[in-house]
Design a protein that fits this description.
The protein is mainly alpha-helical and about 280 residues long. The chain has 2 domains: about 50 residues, no CATH class; about 210 residues, MetI-like (MetI-like fold, Orthogonal Bundle), CATH 1.10.3720.10. Helices cover about 75% and strands about 0% of the residues.
Length: about 280
């Protein structure tokens, strides 16, 4: 098989995989404009004729979900949590790399190990501790997400910090710069590719997270996923599928737009730490 034929086969496989991954999103968009009855009977049909419900599903969903209040909470939690993760994990990774020793290796191993621990294993103990230290509120979610997001973030930062020439930091020290000045003026700007990657990955995770906000915040301060799930469920397990599909589109749009705008930085940030500069 020639190189051209191999490329064609690869493109066909990638196109099929893309279609497979995009199909659920297309199904949500199609059914968001159908009346509730036809969503159950003809889920794959296009919304034409009697099936077309216009914007009724969106109006019904917005009136019952409290969508804009939930968006405000989600934006607050996501933006502040991502900012804290990006800054503090960068500091931690820089410290671990620049102060080698047994303690640093143990701490780094603990952060990496936290990546493989499934959340259900620590779910009940974590929520009990969060409640005891009075973090069961919107602002309290910020240190909670910092704890759960530190493992992957520090792992990515550490790989990149190892490629930075230490001579730059030594030169800053000779010029009289302190530790914080060296970090914010020399190190952190160089970490921008990985910082953007960390922000994107954690932003998508925090925005779409359902289980942790539901367990910690409950019904009092619902985020977007929790508000949609609870509002669209009726009595005896009945679900307003039309309103649910419409609200899913509105919930996806902000984070999808953010991802499409910044997706190229993910690859740049991940590969930046794999090549010596």
């Amino acid at each position: 098989m020639t190189k051209k034929q191999t490329n064609i086969v690869i493109y066909v496989i990638l196109a099929l995989l893309s279609a497979l991954f995009l199909f659920p999103i297309l199904l949500v968009v199609i059914n968001a404009f159908k009346s509730k009855f036809f969503i159950s009977t003809d889920p794959f049909a296009l919304p034409f004729g009697d099936m077309f419900a216009g914007l009724e599903n969106f109006r019904r969903g917005l009136s019952s979900v409290g969508f804009f209040a939930a968006v405000g909470r989600s934006v607050c939690i996501t933006v502040l949590s991502v900012a804290v993760i990006v800054l503090f994990c960068a500091m931690c990774a820089w410290f671990l790399v620049r102060t080698p020793g047994r303690v640093s290796r143990l701490l780094y191993g603990a952060f990496v190990f936290s990546m493989v621990v499934p959340f259900p294993m620590i779910m009940y103990t974590a929520t009990y501790l969060i409640d005891r230290v009075h973090l069961s509120n919107v602002l309290g979610m910020i240190p909670v997400y910092l704890g759960f997001g530190a493992g992957l973030s520090i792992f990515l930062y550490t790989a990149f910090v190892k490629t930075l020439p230490i001579e730059l930091e030594e030169a800053a020290g000779i010029d009289g710069a302190g530790v914080l000045s060296t970090f914010f003026r020399i190190v952190f700007p160089l970490l921008s590719p990985t910082a953007i990657t960390v922000a994107i990955l954690n932003g998508m995770w925090i925005w779409n997270d359902y289980l942790l906000p539901y367990l910690v915040l409950g019904d009092k301060n619902k985020t977007v996923p929790v508000a949609i799930e609870l509002a669209m469920q009726g009595a005896f397990g009945a679900v307003d599928l039309g309103g649910l599909m419409a609200m899913l589109i509105l919930a996806i749009l902000p984070i999808l737009s953010f991802y499409l705008f910044a997706q190229r930085y993910i690859i740049e940030g991940i590969t930046a730490g794999s090549v010596k500069g």
